[in-house]
Fold Amino acid permease/ SLC12A domain-containing protein.
Amino acid sequence: MKNQSAEPSLSWWHLSLIGAGGTVGTGYFLGTGIALKSSSWFTIPAFLIAAFATWIVYKRLAMMTMADPCEGSFCTYAGKAYGRWAAFLCGWIYWISTVLIMGGQLTALGILSRYWFPSIPLWVFTLIFAVLSITVVLLGARGFDIAEDFFSVIKLSALVIFLFIGASLLSGGRNHFHLNGSMPFDEGFNRMRTSLIFAFYSFAGIEVIGLMASRLTETKDIFKSGRALILCLGSLYVLALWVTMKLQAPTHFSSEESPFISVLNRGHVPIVASCFNGVILIAGFSALAAALFSVTRLLRSMADEGEAPRIFKRKWKRDIPLPSLCLSVAGMGIAIIASHLLPGIIFEAFITAAGILLLCNWAFILLSSFKLLDRDVRRNGVSLFALAILVLAISGTFTLKESRYGFYLSMVLLVLISLASLLFNYKSSRRLAKS
């Protein structure tokens, strides 16, 4: 099926690059420090399991996209499967989770910037990066594509370069950490469970491919784009984590410094560490801009379907949904204020809450596929297994002290969105009854 979008069409590899731009960010480069400290080498199986579940979710989304391409993607499919209340719920969960992701990215960018300028307040850096991300989005779809291509190549190259540097340090005898094979199974399982949310967060943004699939030159290439992206990211993620843990014990990791920067500093390559910190800044900024770009498009699509106020239908130059952008910017403003008031816990709280809401949306993708796709027993069985993994990841956030605030925050937000969805459904029913 040919692309019918008014925006520039995309090839499958181009969409994969954009997906990498929206996926590889500070959630991996900074957030994995929390997972490594709490879960040690059990972080690796957590990433493998998360990659598998991500592929299943993506595959089901791709199958629905192939059967029925639409701009609203998973929100539209939820509505077709369960009613407009589900589309409303799914859309606003995604919007709020993306705002939280942007808040986490902004906070992380501030933390990373203070690596060079420790005396400057965190909120100053968050404000600077917020303005820059808005500028990228104002370039329009074509400008955004070019920027994300550039950022994606840098980020993927950085992971490859880190692997080469790590391999050279290992070959030089800098092996500081050895696996502990005597740990009881239940303790190992619990450690892996607590790190699942950080692993899934590192794949957050993969659904951007679904949102932009309508721009593919050939819609069937959506499978190729996702397969290439998840295989590439999963391999680089796991290899980089393995090298990191071989070079440094987990007790040295924290959320205040990227584990990769920590390894390079302890390996006595500070110049490379400083350069790598700059690359991580680019990675985080790229993911921030991609999140802002995708969420503004989604809000416009929701307005078209009646699940958001009509004002968000309006467009500006270069097809930019300006009212939608302004609301997303307001969400970022709240994140900047929060990072100023609660600098010690806000990063962990944001990425945990965003991860939980993200997984709720992924669960909706699987549940929608049960009704909209064929009743193949094997495929549905695999999807149920992936759904169980998502539930397992959410349950693990309550057991870890660093992520408990995020768990509470996500539960409050889910209750509020659910109440709003019930009110929306009630008003929609009343409107239909009158007509």
Remarks:
- Residues 12-427 form a domain with the Amino acid/polyamine transporter I fold (CATH 1.20.1740.10).
- The radius of gyration is 21 Å.
- Confidence is low (pLDDT under 50) at residues 1-6, 178-182.
